[in-house]
Each structure stands twice: as C-alpha cells, then as structure tokens.
Specification:
Length: 437
Amino acid sequence: MISKIKGTYDILPEESAKWQDVEETIKNVSKLFNFKEIRTPIFEYSELFHRGVGETTDIVKKETYDFEDRGGRVVTLRPEGTAAVVRSVIENKLYASANQPLKLYYQGPMFRYERPQKGRYRQFRQFGAEALGSDSPLIDAEIINFASTLLEALRINDITIKVNSLGDASSKELYKEKLKEYLEPNIHELCPDCNRRYKENPLRVLDCKVDKDSPVLKEAPKPLDFLTEEAKFHFEQVITALDSIGLNYVIDKTLVRGLDYYTHTVFEIDANLESLGAQSTLLGGGRYNNLVESLDGPSVPAVGFAFGMERLLLALESVDKPVAEPFIHCFMIALGVDAQNDALRIVNQLRHGGLICDYDFFNKNLKGKFKQAERLNAMFLLIYGDEEASKNVINVKDTRTGEQEEVPLTNLYRYIVGHINSGGSSCGGNCSSCDEC
Ligand code: AMP
C-alpha cells in the first residue's frame, strides 16, 4: 500500500463540510471588508522566496521544498503567500490600477519541511489578506480588524490581539546594532543555530524555538525602544485607530515575527482554547513597506496577515457551534425495470431545481433501498413503480412526519419545495392561517 507523505493528511468526506463552512465564512467576511481574491501558482522560482521571505529565515534555510524541474529551472513549492502575491502585483502592474489600496486575499496549500506535530504539517492551508498601496496607519488597523472579525464570525471570541512595532528601515538598523552589541557577550549561552543567526541577522535569534525561555532572550533590548520619531508616530496612530474601532489588544514588546520583510506594525492573534495545545497562535501579520521594491517593483507600502486553516479548525473543536447534520432532500425508490429510466429523468429534473437527490445504483431489494435512504438522512422518499407510472403520479413519503401522499408528477417539484420549508404542512408553510403555520 502506498501511504500519504509524512506531514500531510487527507480531508475525508465527513470533515469536508467543516472546511467548506470556514471557507464560506472567509469569503463572506472578505466581501464585507471589500477584499478581492487573488490566486497564484503553487510553485514559483526559488529566488522569489529566497529574496522575498529572506535568506536568513528558518523557512528558507531549512524548510522549503526546492527542486529542479525537467527544464533545469530551480523552483520552490510556496511556503507562504505574500511573496507570490507581491510577484503577481508587480508582474501584472496591479499597483498602477485605479482602485487603491489594493485589497487582496488568498487561500490555498503551502509547504514547509517542518517537524510534524498537532497543528503543524508539511502541507498546510493558509488564508491571507494583503493591502497594498497605502502607508496609512488606518489600514494597519483595518487589517487587524479584518482578522479579528473573521475569528468572531467563526465564534472564536476568547482571543488576545498582540501588537508591536519594529519601526521603519532605520529604526530596524539601529535596533539590530543594539541587539548585536547586547548579544555579543552572551551568545555562547545560546544554541548553535542562534550563533549562526547572530552572525547573519541578529533579529532572527529572537525567533529561536530552542532558547525562547532563556533569560538572555527575555532580557534582550526591545525594538519599540529604538523607533524613529516618524515610526513612533505611525504606531501611535495605529493604536488610536484600534481604540476607535473598539478592539481589545495588548502591546507585546517581544513580538518580532519570523520573517525578514516586516517593518512598522507586527501583530499576532492567540486563541485561548484547549484544543490548540501549544500552538495557540492563530495568525500573524504586519506591515512590509520595502518588500515590493526589494522584488524589483516600485516603492509600494503594504500590510497583511496570514493564518493556518488547520489551526483554525482545531480551534473550532472547542467552540460551541451547532453542526448541521448532513442530509439529502429526496431518495428515489424505483420499482421495476420500466420505471427505472423514468425515475432517472424525474430525479434529474428535481436536481435542476436545486434539490439534493440520490438513487439506488445497486438494484437493492426494497428493504435495502429504505436502509440506504435512512443512512443518507433523506427528507423524502419518492416511490415510483409501474402502477404509479401508469397513473402519472408518484408516492412521496415525508420521513419527518411519516405521512405518505400520492402526488401528480407535474406537481412533484412544487410539492417537495413547499414541504421542505413547512416541515410537513400541506399549505407549503406560508399561508399563516392553517394549523401548522
Ligand atoms: P507564518 O507564515 O509563519 O507567519 O505563519 C502564519 C500562520 O500559518 C501561523 O500562525 C500558523 O497558523 C500557520 N502555520 C505556519 N506554519 C504552519 C505549519 N507547518 N502547519 C500548519 N500551520 C502553519
């Protein structure tokens, strides 16, 4: 037997409804905030991610799926969405479109060669949103609000929004210098990876998963203390906007995020839910004012976030949300060879009217057909044999009430639709005068 690759998983039919539910909510909330979907390829030239995400990040150093295709191109399965969106914005000159800022969202599979564990996979799905073209602090707040509204729409209410600022390029440079000075006498206390990171890019030492509780890192200088006046003003305005919206947040001075491209605002949202275990961070994002330019585009400021959808589904396990039982509207029970072809046509007409219908394809006996209808949770059984065919009628049994009626074929669709909403009332459920209404 060929098994699935380590770190991947199947979404089986019983689980796909949950995914569709989350995807539908994402689509609806994106619409409310007027974000439009963008779909980019799953693989890109490796250089895009090496330059976009950053050569010194763990993602590029250790986690990308890189390979050479048969034409000798060095390509990478995308480990995240932002670099590809930016590539597409540049290549398609979307930055020059009349509608600014560009408000885009994406969702789809990402690939990272990480150690698989609960909530962490090698193929996982991310949803992300990016707003490009404005350096207004209001759009930083809009993006944070979008992320938190999404969680609210999914009934994930017990969340902590953490915000921080890394400042502009010069604040970051100054901070990097100070951090390097601070780390120099202590670096031998940290892991070998940190020693390498220290030389390449000291900021990345702060992402270390091994030494994250070490006093050396806990007491390290904080980016917020090295902001230029301009960067400080930007951050204050983001905070004012968050207050105006009425969002609860905490300023987390230790937050830096693991990607090189962030400038100014960075944020994460944690959910305080048991089912998430150690992976309590649901999403993260921030401003990236220099990424478009560093990928050979014009100077376009931008801000965005991304979240892992698996983690969101894990979070939803602890959320009290009524789950709709799967059902179908009609199950056709055709009796006799002649009736069978007619029955197929009848079922097809009902489907064209939007009704979920199924059929017995195994030619089971009557008991078997009833059992199958029960397993599928059919609302109505349509019983059609030679006798019904000769009279141009069909027997319809409402499984919720147990009532059975002979219905003219020409009236079948209207009858079913009327009875779906009425839960069995004969009037169709909207007369407001009969006993049932
Ligand atoms: P990042 O792109 O690293 O900023 O991660 C953004 C979000 O993607 C995280 O908060 C997680 O929810 C999710 N994520 C990142 N890596 C993985 C992974 N290997 N498996 C599942 N989800 C992930």
